[in-house]
Design brief:
With 335 residues, the protein is of the alpha+beta class. It has one domain. 34% of the residues lie in helices and 25% in strands. The chain has eight helices and 16 strands. The strands form six sheets. Strands 8-14-1-15-16 form a five-stranded antiparallel beta sheet, with helices on both faces. It is globular, with a radius of gyration of 22 Å. About 1% of the residues have low confidence.
């Protein structure tokens, strides 16, 4: 069985139309990571589980720390396959296209308003307009508590000699920084609303390909996104916090801190929870893809996107859908 592509709207609608595609994901840190604001790891005091209501401190992975790396992955591919220019936006010239007729879309500087990234993930350009994100991702919470999920490191920046002193002077370039440990799990729901099948595949590909999250992404911040299910519904489903708490209830007996949670076991338990959590949400489910059917679908999808020609075709279809939406609802409103 494959994903029901004909369920998706043929064109991105101008108003919400109740097409919700949910990616149920278990994010796993694969190296030391830094998810912080104002110099400290983000945390939250919440109930441990749904049944176990004792309060615990959990690591928090904010929405933008999830969506930003994923949309940058997509933008990289759009430039790689010549759909977007690699030229920075010139505030004086104010050119929309470069000399090769490629759109100039400069992230957080000048959005083109019409590429798959702009239409799917949204943009805001002050008084000039905005587009609401069609990718809904809330704060994710660590399955395990803060105490057993982080570690503090002392960082230094030595001179070229490899020492911390030169000419008798000791450098002050020493700092302490909290890191999230490897194999910390963040149960997550990524919802893609009212997009075409091509734009959904664009978003899915970004999720699969993104390998680093948080600060210092070139050296740390490795994250693996384990997709547990894809669900097509007519409404929103359970939150990240509820998903995390439900998984904690069934997995806590297997915790042996400070040892990491067995990822394979957590994936199995989380996948078993999905149907019951969906039933409690009271939404109409058009398709629930998980287990062997999901494995086959993802294997076929990744085999297709590992081919340059197929990747070009996917991006071309996504670009055509986003451009059609731009012409119908954004460009027309400026006239």
């Amino acid at each position: 069985m494959s994903l029901q592509s004909n369920w998706f709207p043929p064109a991105v609608p101008g108003k919400p139309s109740g097409h919700y595609a949910h990616l149920i994901v278990l994010r796993e840190t694969t190296s030391y990571a830094v998810f912080q604001t104002d110099g400290e790891l983000n945390t939250a005091r919440v109930s441990s589980g749904l049944a176990n209501t004792s309060v615990m401190t959990r690591l928090a992975l904010f929405k933008r720390k999830q969506t930003t790396p994923e949309r940058l992955t997509g933008r990289e591919l759009l430039r790689r396959y010549s759909f977007l220019s690699d030229q920075p936006y010139d505030e004086k010239a104010k050119l929309a296209m470069d000399s090769n007729d490629r759109l100039i879309c400069d992230y957080n500087v000048h959005f083109c308003n019409q590429c798959p990234d702009c239409i799917t993930y949204g943009f805001a350009i002050g008084d000039a307009g905005s587009e609401k994100s069609k990718v809904i991702t809330d704060t994710a919470y660590s399955l395990t508590d803060y105490a057993s999920s982080h570690e503090t490191f002392t960082l230094n920046a030595p001179y070229e000699s490899g020492t911390m002193s030169r000419e008798g002077q000791v450098t002050s370039r020493i700092n302490e920084l909290d890191h999230v440990k490897p194999q910390v799990l963040f149960p997550t729901v990524v919802t893609v609303r009212d997009v075409t099948h091509s734009l959904f595949e664009y978003t899915l590909n970004n999720l699969i390909r993104t390998r680093h999250y948080g600060a210092q992404t070139t050296r740390t911040g490795g994250v693996a996104n384990h997709i547990l299910a894809i669900v097509l519904t007519d409404g929103e489903v359970f939150s990240n916090l509820k998903f995390c708490q439900a998984l904690y209830d069934v997995a806590r007996e297997h915790f042996q801190p400070p040892d990491p949670v067995d990822t394979a076991l957590a994936r199995s338990l989380a996948a078993q929870l999905v149907p019951n959590l969906l039933q409690a949400d009271g939404v109409a489910i058009n398709q629930l893809l998980q287990g062997d059917e999901l494995t086959t679908y993802l294997a076929d999808f990744m085999e297709r996107t590992s081919n340059e020609r197929a990747m070009q075709e996917l991006l071309s279809a996504a670009f055509a859908d986003s451009r059609r939406y731009y012409e119908a609802y954004i460009a027309s409103s400026k006239k």
